[in-house]
Amino acid sequence: MSQRFDHSVDQYIEQHTSPAGQLLDELERQTYLKVLRPQMVSGHLQGKVLEMMCRMIRPKRVLEIGTFTGYSALCMAAGMPDDSTLHTIDINDELEDFTRSFFSRSPFANRIIYHLGDARQIIPMLGGQFDLIFIDADKREYPDYYQLAIENVRTGGFIIADDVLWYGKINAEAAANDAQTRQLIEFNNFVQSDPRVENVLFPIRDGLMVMQKVK
Questions:
Q1: What pLDDT digit, counting tens, does each position of 54-80 carry?
Q2: Among 90, 62, 95, 96, which Cα is nearest to 76's?
Q3: Does residue 203 sit in helix, strand or coil?
Q4: Distance between CA atoms of residues 108 and 79, nearest Å
Q5: Residues forming a β-bridge with 116
Q6: pLDDT confidence bin for 91, thresholds 50/70/90
Q7: Helix, strand, coil tally for the chain in percent (to 5)
C-alpha cells in the first residue's frame, strides 16, 4: 500500500469500494490462516481494481502469470464476458488443491483454466493472442515474462504487472544479492523506454504498471 496516506485514509478507501463478496472474503481469510507468505494475495482493493478493468476492457481471452491462491483470477473472471476464458499459471503445486477448491465453488469455474508449471514453457503452447495479461509471479523473471507477454498480447491489448513499487525499494540502489529488486528496476526502466507500449504506473497496493500495446 502506498505510504502517502495514513491508515485512516486506507480504511476510508476500503470502505468506499464495493465489497469483495463472501467467497473472496473466505479465500483471503483462509490464505492468511493456511498459506506461507499470505501477503501475496491480491486482496479487496486490488481485486476490485482488476475486476473493474476487466469490465471496462471486456477481454475474451486473459492470461495470468502467477495464480497463488486464486484471488486475482476470480476477480478478473468476475469482470469478464460470459463467453471468455482465463488461463492462469502457477509453478507451486502445493497450493493446487486449495486453489482449485475455491475455483470450483465460484460461478466462474467454467471460464478458468488452471495450469501448473513454468510459465515460460506453458505460454508458447497455449496458442493465439490474449486481450489482457496479468503478471504477478517471481519478480526475478519479470523481464522474461514481459517479453512473453508483449509477444502474446494483441495490438491494443493490455498488460498489467503487479508489485512494481516493491515496498519502495525501487527508489534506492539494489543490493548485490537482491535479484528481485534489481530485476524490477530493470523491468520498470525497460517498459518506460519501450515504444511498443503506453504505460501508467498506479500507486495501488504495491504498484500496478498498466501497459497498452500500441504497435
A1: 999 999 999 999 999 999 999 999 999
A2: 62
A3: coil
A4: 10
A5: 90
A6: very high
A7: 50, 20, 30
